[in-house]
Design goal:
By secondary structure, the protein is mostly helical. It has helices at 2-10, 12-47, 60-83, 88-93, 96-100, 106-140, 158-189, 193-212, 243-270; strands at 145-149, 152-156. It is built from 9 helices and 2 strands; from the N terminus they run H-H-H-H-H-H-E-E-H-H-H.
Length: 275
């Protein structure tokens, strides 16, 4: 298990993803620092005259909220490049047969890879939280959060905002884990890591496109698509929080994770590793 974790974090893509997140945060920080007041004025104009807020509206909470909205999809796609080749690269490199010859079960081998990927995703989410929320609060200070969801605005106190961020990052971790589970499934199916990565991205793009279409034709299908719950994390910034809906959304993602994991184990255990 420790060896798999070491392999995970020594992959070049694993480091690149963290570096890209850091660079994107720096770029966003500069834009937020120089044009934050204009953004503040545009937000206030939405409410009209006579509306006031305690403290400053341009603060670390708003910075983290906006950065979350800007990065969530990009980070999800970048993680695929790290996990999509975890199994397929071993196949194409000819090292998988040697590893499995050490009396290591295929189920145990895949589970170790799955847990390593899970740990990496957790670190990515914590890294995002530390940079966006932690860095934002240090640079821009704390205050009320003016959040928005589905065209509605919600004002959260600083304490409410911190709780909402914690829950949103937790749900986002679950979302990323679903994506990673799918990428590992394709990594098992293909010997070529490029095919595994492109297949994962293609499936996610197509399903997310269908989930985003506002046509009744797809209404009966959307509840079964895991991409329909990709943005559910934003609902933790609403008041009151619809706990029943978010619990259902989380259960759907967990079910998909279990399906992808089980399918991967079953397929991998029956494959003949000849190279």
């Amino acid at each position: 298990m420790l060896q798999e974790i070491y392999k995970m974090f020594t992959r070049s893509y694993a480091k690149i993803v963290l570096l890209v997140i850091f660079i994107l945060m720096l770029v966003f920080s500069l834009a937020f620092a120089f044009e934050g007041q204009e953004y503040y004025d545009s937000l206030l104009s939405t409410f009209g005259k006579g509306v006031s807020f305690e403290g400053k509206l341009i603060n670390g909470n708003l910075f983290a909220f906006q950065l979350f909205h800007a990065l969530w999809l990009f980070v999800g796609l970048m993680v695929i490049f790290v996990t999509g080749g975890m199994i397929s690269e071993e196949k194409s490199g000819g090292t998988l047969r040697m590893v499995l010859s050490r009396k290591v079960s295929k189920t145990g081998f895949f589970t170790a890879r799955f847990m390593a990927a899970k740990l990496y995703v957790l670190i990515v989410v914590l890294f995002m939280a530390a940079l966006s929320l932690g860095g934002g609060l240090i640079i821009f200070g704390s205050g009320e959060l003016l959040a928005f969801d589905n065209g509605k605005f919600f004002v959260l106190t600083s304490n409410q905002a911190l709780l909402s961020f914690a829950l949103a990052y937790l749900f986002y971790f679950l979302m990323l884990l679903t994506v990673v589970s799918l990428s590992l499934l394709f990594s098992v199916l293909y010997k070529n890591s490029t095919k595994a990565i492109l297949s994962t991205v293609s499936v996610i793009v197509i399903l997310y496109f269908v989930s985003s279409l506002d046509f009744s034709l797809f209404d009966s299908v959307k509840p079964f698509l895991f991409t329909s719950y990709f943005t559910s994390w934003s609902q933790f910034f609403t008041t009151p929080i619809d706990w029943m809906k978010l619990t259902f959304d989380a259960i759907v993602l967990v079910v998909h994770i279990l399906i992808f994991y089980t399918a991967s184990v079953m397929i991998f255990s029956k494959q003949e590793i000849l190279d």
